[in-house]
Amino acid sequence: MSTIENPKYWAYLQASELLYYKSETQTVIQTPFTPITELIDYIYTHHPDKALSILRNPFITNYELTPICRETLKVCAKRVRIDPLFSPEVGVRHTYFNKAISNEFLNFVGRPSSLTECFELIKALTKTQKNESGYPIFAIALSQDNKILALQKNLSLISKTHHAETLLCREYFLKYRRPFPKHTRIITSLQPCRMCAAHITQMIEEPKVYYLQKDTGPFSRNTLVSHIEVQVEL
Ligand SMILES: [Zn+2]
What we know:
The chain is α/β, with parallel strands linked by helices. Helices cover 27% and strands 21% of the residues. The protein folds into two domains: 9-95, no CATH class; 106-231, 3-Layer(aba) Sandwich (Cytidine Deaminase, domain 2). The chain has helices spanning 35-46, 51-54, 67-76, 115-128, 164-176, 194-203, and strands spanning 9-15, 18-24, 59-61, 80-82, 94-95, 138-142, 148-153, 185-190, 208-213, 229-231. The termini are far apart. The model has no long low-confidence stretch (mean pLDDT 90).
């Protein structure tokens, strides 16, 4: 039997003659890697010039969207339809598995740090780091017992999903295959957008969010972290 016909969760999108397809046999709950997020990533990274036009087509999934799927779609794609029957009109051309994150800051992981030190670090990185892959936005996951769990930077010119906070969740999940510990704090240069807010609330039980700069764009209003985020001035 084909694995394509019998996965647990799948999503596809048809554009012109091509079908973009991804399936998962594992759960889609409490993971930043779902058929929807991986397909969106694939389309942005492999077809940067026509990604927006491909993503005008609806995704079709056989599962109820998780908050991460739903909010990533709102920020980076367009429409979705749930249909338990797999019924593409053209043959399967692409399947995909993306695990891209930045390994640049792995030496910071495990270091003891405080909230203030994390903000100082983010400010120092913003000044010294060149970032040709997106705006210089950095995010840190800090455990309740003051250890750096992950540090990532925005790579949104590579893929629209590659915000610093989504990459934080991916980094930790790839390493440990589980959500962050309870009460993990997210410290970031910029107020999280709704996609990142969904990642934070799905991957952390009782999170706290601290950011330096307010985002005046529409995607940072009424997010899943609006009630728990705090702007910090240094
Ligand atoms: Zn974001």
